[in-house]
Amino acid sequence: MGTDVAKREFTGADRVQFRRQVSRGTEAIARMLADGLFTDQGEPPEPLLGMEVELNLVDDEMNPAMANATVLDAIADPDYQTELGQFNIEINVSPRPFVTDDTISLEQALRTSLNRAEDRASRTDNHLVMIGMLPTLTHEHFAHQWISANPRYDLLNRQIFAARGEDIEIDISGIPLGEQHPTERLHTTTDSILPEAACTSLQLHLRVAPEDFAAYWNAAQSIAGVQVALAGNSPFLAGTALWHESRIPVFEQATDTRPLELKNQGVRPRVWFGERWINTIFDLFEENTRYFPALLPVASDTDPIDELDDGRIPALDELRLHNGTVYRWNRPVYDVVGGRAHLRVENRVLPAGPTVVDTMSNAAFYYGVVRGLVESDRPLWSQMSFNAAAENLQSGARAGLEAQLYWPNVGWVRPDELTLRRLLDLADVGLRAYGVSGKARARYLSVIEGRCITHQTGSVWQRKAVVAREDAGETREQALCGMLRDYVTLMHEGEPVHTWSL
């Protein structure tokens, strides 16, 4: 959805042409795979780490600040861009080599950039918060008027509602804050997709050789449940205690184009884990073509097969735009840079924050474990069902470190125990294979280990902080605001979340 799309109405002819172009683009991908036309065909790709970090904006009172245009003008940095809600912005981190101490230099560069952006934003009485879900968001902040000004966002909103034909329903039962606390439930409807904007994430990109794509995607799917359990940072929305990583159910429901009747028929949702392990990236693009109608059918007359026949690498604009509106938790990415095509796995399950070092640790753990699994003697995904991986994601998001996940040759296990016993060593092996230095490996994996030992993620800390404030007599609104103020202070101090005290 990074593509600018003019505000317009679409005709039946637009949709027919767009469908044809997406289908031709899928054919082009298959031919490029067969003909070895990707940059990395036949040779290992240079390890590159790329990430996008979504940020929330608050005012001095910790309320959502509908001010992204003002803040972006103040920051004046092309790395920062708008997001769906006026209370969101995003920083795009340029890809760089994933070797030696480059991860540490990336951490330092990211911290410097965010500090500079915060300094400039504060001059407008607004502030940046790196958190999975802003706890002071309420139902009133989901009104259509708070969609960002760029026409593409309103157009996407209108197209989703046109497909759905009725208001969006958010219905989530949470995890009790403690033994003496009842289960809380968020049940609301909205006439905009802005609950999606509440879900601020860390998106990790990894460029891979075409012949390796399926293995890396399958590996990423395998560990999604562990990722969200270890990194949960989104426990509250609209004053309600929900899941440890509430982004997962909120995002699934906020962009659901299906009315109840289509759900009952088994029509696939647009936020999708998938339904099977794959053998090639073509499997995913083919599923996009077969199962998902266009939301933004903006089509050109450029035939990608003709482009290939003429010796040019096609941009596949329609395929890429369509792919951007199918919200897989691990998404395939086709891109052309400098006239050369390449493929990436985009990992989308992680929340933003709490700190820069936590963010880098989440990234290092993901990249390391995925590489370790790909290079294992026997693929993990050959030992577990796809449904088990999908259930792990839901369980890890809901219960966090208390979840019970299924793991081959282990059975049912908590994510902290699984990580301490197996995955930290696997991540270390994978990072070493990339060429990451021992200093960097120790720095980031020790943060993941610390969360497992202290049993504290961002979500756990937020929940404890709110309980402590409520036990001291504060209302839920006061507790959330006070907790967020403490969170922002600790975020700027920069120590990893497992060391935070109340």
TrEMBL record:
**By its UniProt entry, which InterPro entries does this protein fall under?**
GCL_type2/YbdK_subfam (IPR050141), GCS2 (IPR006336), Gln_synth/guanido_kin_cat_dom (IPR014746), UCP012666 (IPR016602)
SUPFAM superfamilies, alphabetized: Glutamine synthetase/guanido kinase
Q: Answer whether the UniProt record assigns the keyword Isomerase to this protein.
A: no
* GO terms of molecular function: ligase activity
Q: Which Gene3D superfamilies match?
A: 3.30.590.20
Q: Which domain of life is it from?
A: Bacteria
Q: Write the signal peptide boundaries.
A: none
Q: What keywords tag this UniProt record?
A: Ligase
Q: Which reactions fall under this protein's catalytic activity?
A: L-cysteine + L-glutamate + ATP = gamma-L-glutamyl-L-cysteine + ADP + phosphate + H(+)
Among PANTHER family, the record links this protein to: CONSERVED PROTEIN, GLUTAMATE--CYSTEINE LIGASE 2-RELATED
Q: What is this protein called?
A: Glutamate--cysteine ligase
- Organism, by scientific name, is Gordonia prachuapensis
